[in-house]
Amino acid sequence: FSVLKPAVADAKEELSKSDTSTSAEALDACAARIDAAMEVLKERKVTFSEDFDAAGTRDDLSAWTFVENQGSVTLETDAEDPDNQYLKVYRTDMAQKGSAEAICAFEELTGKVYIQADVRNVTPEAMFAAPMVVKSVKNGIDETYAGTDIITAIQMRDGTTDKGPIKIYKTAGSSSTVSVGSVMAGADEWNTICLVIDVDSDTVEVYWNGFKVGNDSYPLRNETDSICTLRFYSDDYNKSEQDKRNAEGYLDNLIIYQEAA
Hints:
Blueprint: H1 4-17, H2 23-42, E1 44-50, E2 64-68, E3 71-77, E4 85-91, E5 100-109, E6 112-121, E7 127-134, E8 150-157, E9 163-169, E10 177-186, E11 191-198, E12 203-208, E13 211-219, E14 227-235, E15 247-259
Helix pairs in contact: 1-2
């Protein structure tokens, strides 16, 4: 997706510039761009995918760990499409320490790793980590995540009630974040996020709905030898006890690719 969509967009732009005398050449150029994108896709292999549609109950999701000490994680059915299911990660008690999390574990991957998912943050003024890439699974009660456990993260937060930016760590070894370009995610819309993590260079690229956004790359918060755990969770960064809010995020169509050696 993150390869083909820009290629098709380039092809459309090429056609829009052409007239009848050059349309054949423009079509050839479009075909060449799409063919090149297809060759890139052939060099990737899917190592993990989950669209939640085949799950009868949440217990069928064997690769997942759910933390619900201050909220819930539920398997939801799309009201407009009964064949489509997704996860709702809903933190409800913001005054207490805890979390609502869906944590996915898969085989250790090295080299260049692609993490793609459809995500939605219904509460942009709160926060949905979509995802946070961490080093291992922890249960959120007697095992909690420290800063050194975090590899990188996309955080949908610090917005208004109807839309908000997406943020990423901007400096290695630091919790400081920066907005990724001018991206604004609406509370009423699904978006496709893709992180391209290069374990060898300790960098990550961000794609939003198929297009690269923000800087050419961002540093990983902490170096790692492999990628094996994703943490999708809802939280609130507002520190005022008088103004705590619920946090509600959604996840669907998770796909993890690895670039062929």
